[in-house]
Amino acid sequence: MSHIIRGVRNEDWARIKEIRLDALRDPVAPVAFLETYEQAAARPDEFWQDRAAGAAEGIAARQFVAEAADGRWLGTVSVLVERPGKRGALEGDVVEVAQTHIVGVFVRPEARGSGLAQELFRAALEWSWSLAEPRIQRVRLFVHEDNARAAAMYEKAGFKRSGVALPVPGDATRREIELAVHRG
Q: Cα separation of 176 and 147, whole Å?
């Protein structure tokens, strides 16, 4: 499978929307994402244009895609910069150190098991460690307790359970488990 890993550009906004909607149609979407297909599909084009601009700028966020030789996007990962003292992504989550947060991980079914996810994680980690301000101390992500396949993939990429488990938004009986990689 021939592909390149690259950062998104401003003009990619419609493709960013397309791959996000495809991800939200995936059978594991309910335990993989905190947004529904209906919520994302209802967002105006301006939302997607703003998302593309922010992810292309690479200051507060960066999005990477795996693009096949024919131009088709095979997978994506986004990275958000989090600064100490700010509220994190989930209820009860407070950011204690300069870190990045990996979100929106998706690989199309036909590319799963090919090593593509590991390449996307490598790009996300390299970008995180390259930031001068803030100097990133750790990279983290959350995985739903029922998403064993994703947890195994993250652990294969070097992420380790941090001991933090927070309630899933909208379902306090379930948990999102934090995994992290620390600056070496």
A: 10
